[in-house]
Amino acid sequence: MINISNISAELRMIETGVIMGGFKAAAVQLSDRQHTLLKSMAHRRTNTVNLVQRANIALLAATGLNNSQIKQKAFCSLSTVKKWRQRWINAYAQLQEIEATAPAHLSHAIEDVLSDETRSGSPPKFTEGQVAQIISLSCETPESCGIPVSHWTAETLAQAAIHRNIVESISLSHIGRFLKRKQKS
Description:
Elements: H1 4-16, E1 18-19, E2 22-23, H2 32-43, H3 49-62, H4 67-74, H5 78-101, H6 106-113, H7 128-139, H8 154-163, H9 172-184
Antiparallel strand pairs: 1-2
């Protein structure tokens, strides 16, 4: 007679990765193009340390290494390896679809998968409309705004934004972030 509870227990062990007293990590699959892009991300000097580490975790996981081995090679915690292995596995089908339908967007999609998720926190202090107005203001000359300087500084731009009633107050660091955002687009 078959013992149903034993079969259920074995199935749970397989589903959770516990196999015969040890953990077997879920397999990570990479297409050739994904492998190439991940290697490029892992070696690009301009990438953040986190992105490089996460790309390396995905590459190492695809070689069949277990989480403990990856932890040692990537110099990170076991929970970090598990998190990014699972994140890749969860996104794999979507990445395959992007690779098939819009291959030019694959690199950006991989970076999104390997990026931190948006955290909840305090709502933005400034609306997109206010940000757009400040960026628009920065495109004008200071002289046209009645400011006797030839180039904007963060301080003069903040003063002009307050004077025009775009914002009630704004820090110089916020102005700097908005201008960086403008440069990236």
